[in-house]
Amino acid sequence: MEELSLSKNVANLRKKKGVTQETLAEFIGVTKASVSKWETGQSMPDVLILPKLASFFDVSVDELLGYHPQLTKEKIRHFYQQWTTAFSEEPFEYVMEDCRKAVKQYYSCYPFLLQVVVLWLNHFMLTKDLEEQQAILSEAEALCTKIVEESTELSLCNNASLLKVAVMLQLGKPEEALSEIEEKADPYRFAQQSDTLLIQAYRAAGQTKKAVSYTQFSMFSHLINLVSSATHYLLIQIIQLPVIEETVNRIDAVIQAFNLTAVHPNSCAQFSYAAACAYAKHEKEEQVIKCLKQFVDLTLILIREEGRILNGDRYFDEITEISEVAELGVQQIRDTKIIRVGALSALENPIFQQIERSKIEKLKKRLASKTAA
């Protein structure tokens, strides 16, 4: 729970309202000296005065006191999973209304606000109202800004800053996104070497278990980042068939070597889909169908796993445990129903219009089948 900040709030609200201490004192029925002591923290107003003070500033008593309830990590996960399910079963506007109410209630629980941004980024497209999409993204951007400006937790601020960039890109503001992230993501900054330094520190301190866990997670994270970067590289180099083929060959080898289709099927599914799009650009039907089959198979794994975004194996035998520490743990960021619908929609991409229709329909039928999952 964060400390109450009544004195600071009274001063800020009074200045925001543009009134003097004398005016406030006269309204409440106390002396100017009393108001001055409230604002400097030398004394506190009587509890019976609080509702009148709150009314004068047009805020709730909780807001006046600076009381903002904080949620546990488990409660944040519960909210997130509850809403991902609701988005697949209830009217979009009802779920958004519930989200917005919770945001107001827990407006200074910054880890919660961060996960609300993640939630909205992954579901805003479910409404067909483009103005509402823009409104949701703008709200998400504002939440990121609030976290960065008000939270004292560095890692939380860094994550909010990165999410803000993702929101900006969705809002069609690439120049602003570059301004926000270009310096922070500079690969030559010392901060980029923090993984290696932390691992060395754990070893030097004799904390072998932590060294093992963190090293595994670092390797795993870099592997997923490699696959993700390669996914974008395919689309950047989409007119260069030799580059596409070499990228697919190399990443396929990495995926196989580290069993990533089982450990993190989502990143592999995205890569397979990007490869299918790239091959379709060159009318390579055989390769397109092969990649789309992989995409469908991996999507069905995601659906069958009922919510898990990663699984350890005999090599990465520590990553599930360390991932549980994260706000959302290893749970999926979208409901399985939405994943299935999204994948079916992806197969309708116009880039595949040159592919034999019966082959696409066969893939759609397999994806839509409940028994296939």
From TrEMBL:
Give GO MF terms, alphabetically. DNA binding
**Superkingdom per UniProt:** Bacteria
Keyword Signal on entry: no
Q: Residue ranges of the HTH cro/C1-type domain?
A: 10-64
| Keywords per UniProt | DNA-binding
Checking InterPro entries in the record gives: Cro/C1-type_HTH, Lambda_DNA-bd_dom_sf
Q: Does the keyword Protease apply?
A: no
What does the record list as coiled-coil region(s)? none
Q: Which CDD domains match?
A: HTH_XRE
Q: What is this protein called?
A: Helix-turn-helix domain-containing protein
The organism is Enterococcus faecium
Top-down, what is the taxonomic lineage of the species of origin?
A: Bacteria, Bacillati, Bacillota, Bacilli, Lactobacillales
